[in-house]
Every structure is written in structure tokens, then in C-alpha cells.
Amino acid sequence: MLNIKNISFILLAVFIGSCTDSSTQQSKINKKEIEESLVKVNKKMVKSEDEQIKDFIARYGWEMKQTGTGLWYMIYKDGFGPLAVKGQVAKVNFNVSLLNGEVCYSSDTEGLKEFQIGQGGVESGLEEGILLMKTGDRAKFIIPSHLAFGLLGDAKKIPAKAALVYDIELVELI
Question: Is 52 exposed, middle or buried, given 0-12, 13-18 or 19+ CB atoms closer than 10 A?
Fold first, then answer.
């Protein structure tokens, strides 16, 4: 299984390769081989994470839908009003945990999360999910790592390459 050291080595190889004279045929071959290796590694990581998410969903018996980007969602309580749109400010109650059940963040301790939809500053998977909701909706999102905090995590409570489970309520749209 790939670990951070292996990924770091591959990235270092890419960096070193990019610093050499790219005009030689050998350099071009090496760069292409390295790029192909990185693509293979990435595909394996995405496939492994997707399998973990599917196992998690099956374990809980949730009936979730998946978007084209890989976000999994299930609206389990209907609210009212029109769907959220970019530019609005969303206020949400939330509970964020890892697939192993470890709670990372919660509005119980952090307070309501407030953000302008489409302006960044939150996980792209969260913004995508909010656009599927209307005020008062409660939903569960499973956000794959590439739509959350990616290879690095958040340097606080969310580790590297972590898929996130959001239990979320859209309290208000402004």
C-alpha cells in the first residue's frame, strides 16, 4: 500500500526531473514515465477511497446518490423554500466526522458555520452539497478527500487523504 513516504519520493522525483535539461530524449522519457506512475498511483488511491466510502454507506444502510464529482449525499429531512444558489450566505448546523466515526468538528462546540456559497473558504464538496439543499433540509454528505482537504488534511483535526462525513442542517440562507 502506498504511504506518504512513497508519494513524497515520487513527487521528489518529479521535481528533480523538472529541474533537468528537458531537451534531451532521456529526460522526456523519464518525465513521461513518472507522470504515468503518478496517474496510476492516484487512480489506485481514488479507487481505494471509493471502496471505503461504499462499504461505509452499506454498513449504515443509507440510500445515497452520487454526483459527477464524487460527492455522496442523502437529504433525510425536507425543509422549505427554494434551493440554495451561489452568492447567498449559508448558515449551517453541522457534525463532521471521519469514516471511522471520529468526530472532528461540530456546531455544538464551534457554533454555526457561515459562508458565502461559491466564494471558497470551505471544502468544495460542502459548497456542492449545499447547492442541493433548501432552508430547513437536513442531509448527510460523504465528501471524498479530493473534495475536502486532499493529501494534506487541515493540519488540525482532519488527517491527510480523509473522506469526511457531514451531518448537516441548512438553517438559513441570506
Answer: middle
